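Appendix B, Record 12. Input sequence as logged:
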Amino acid sequence: MKTNQHIDDKSWELLAKSIYDESNKMTAEELKSAVNGMFPSESEGGQLLTLTEKVDLFFDLKKYPAEQAWGKVEKRIGKDEAGFGKIIVRKFISNRLYRMAAAILVGALLLVSGYEFFYRPASSASMLQVVATDKVLNTVALPDGTFVSLNSNTKISYPKKFSGKNREVTIEGEAFFEVKPDKNKPFIIHAGKAQIRVLGTSFSVSAYPATKQVEVIVQTGKVQVVNKTSEKLQTDELILTPGDKGTLVYASNTMQKTTNQDPNFIAWKTHNLTFKATSLREVIENLEKVYKVNIRLADPKLNELLLTAQFNDYPLDFILKVIENTFPIEIQEIDGQYVLKARS
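Logged structural output:
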């Protein structure tokens, strides 16, 4: 928002008098014209007038006894080196015109910053947010003892303390939850258009906005997945048990329950990989996701190669060496990217 950098103190004083000094009252049209002349747009001037009306109403409703209030302040700040400062501040507070002029200045600053003071959610200050970067895997301990591992480019929002009947969090991205059991306070996750409800269990949730879907895979316990959209479906709720996979697809607004066929669904967290006659393309996709690297096949025909192997938290270089020794290929690292090509 652009601001008028040429509003001097005299203009502020005249504007304050025009609004609050009964002897210098302007008409509504004169006041509107004066305010709009000080700001780059009529909307900002209108917001300022609305703000001053709210401030005036606030002070009219809150008629605190000034002398009593000041006495409490004096006790707090003490008497040392406060004489002159107290006189000035006290005079300023008791002078209605100065008080309202200050309110106008504060209002202008709020307009310039674009900060919605009157509409800021009261609970925002009690919320925490953790964001996992592209290269770092974060594990977060929630206030109830639940542990959440965040995959790259994932964020979670949760309160400093769980209150009420539920434990509610919001995620965007992919995370693995190990929920501390509490039958009296269900754990609820808001993930895109899905709501996941559990009592105590371990499961993964994938809800990256770009995928336009939410996936939930259960490792232990029982999980309820609910579609939060307003449209009624034949199936708007899934109950998942260990080994189940639930998928909410945004495009068709459908929910599906299947058996999880991916043994590496949490390999990004554990670095444990299992391949059973897996195409080299799929192997590469898993390695890229787990180790946050770029790997390219120089020849599409190499995708026909099938790998059977198991790696339990091995470094990437070791896995690539096994692949190189298993197949007639060689691996080169070029500009931070691994390139797999047929051995010459």
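Residues 1-6, 57-64, 79-94, 108-125 have pLDDT under 50 and may be disordered.
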